[in-house]
Design brief:
Elements lengths: L13 H12 L21 H6 L4 H21 L3 E4 L6 E3 L3 E3 L3 E4 L5 E9 L13 H14 L7 E9 L6 H14 L6 H19 L1
Parallel strand pairs: 5-6
Antiparallel strand pairs: 1-4, 2-3, 4-5
Helix pairs in contact: 3-6, 5-6
Length: 209
């Protein structure tokens, strides 16, 4: 939030900026466009309830979907073909149903990369004693355990797990670095690509607050 915008894609309006600042400062988010109350307990709408209140599960799904779209745009900007929830990449899910990855990234001569996204809440009071980033790493391990054994040999699995404050887990960071190398052929500098898309991910989460 302290960075100067580098393009229209990295601009936050006042209605987006103010709640994002309050979220990071840990103060109540009540305002002219909010009733200031938490839906499940009736208490104040604070950062913990924004990211964790059961009554706001629909809001968290919107935040998740915003990150998915950002990840698709990030992969496409490196020159890859990126599709959201492609119907031809169903994976087995136990004996009951099937699931598909949230983004499939294709490039000639390379295995298809199947991406699944998770946004984790590290603002809960019980988590404050942990180092920021540790819950993204935990979420990443869960994703790997759930998907790695069912991904076909013609594909590779890439989990992208981010905390609400913008920290990306290690495998996701490695994948962004990998995309930055491909993006050079599209006119990017690798360092500028990484800086730009890390900023876009962080701002996407800020808008979701």
């Amino acid at each position: 939030l302290s960075r100067l915008p580098t393009s229209w894609n990295t601009v936050l309006g006042n209605s987006e900026f103010m709640p994002a600042v309050k979220f990071r400062l840990g103060i109540d988010l009540g305002g002219q466009d909010r009733d200031g109350r938490c839906g499940c307990r009736g208490g104040r709408l604070n950062p913990d309830s924004v990211a964790g209140c059961r009554s706001r599960s629909g809001h968290r799904q919107i935040a998740h979907d915003m990150v998915v779209r950002c990840v698709r745009a990030m992969a496409a900007s490196s020159g890859d073909v990126a599709r959201i929830e492609p119907h031809d990449t169903l994976l087995p899910d136990g004996d009951v149903s099937q699931r598909r990855p949230e983004v499939a990234v294709s490039r000639v001569g390379l295995p298809t990369e199947l991406i699944d996204v998770r946004v984790v809440n590290n603002s809960q009071p019980t988590r404050h004693r942990f180092v920021y980033g540790s819950y993204a790493q935990d979420g990443e391990r869960v994703k790997i355990a759930a998907y790695e054994s069912v991904v076909p040999r013609t594909s590779t699995f890439k989990p992208i797990v981010v905390e609400f404050l913008g920290i990306v887990a290690s495998k996701g960071s490695d994948y962004i670095r990998k995309l930055s190398g491909r993006a050079v052929a599209k006119g990017w500098k690798a360092s500028a690509y990484m800086e730009h898309w890390r900023l876009r991910l962080s701002l996407t989460l800020a808008k979701a607050v």
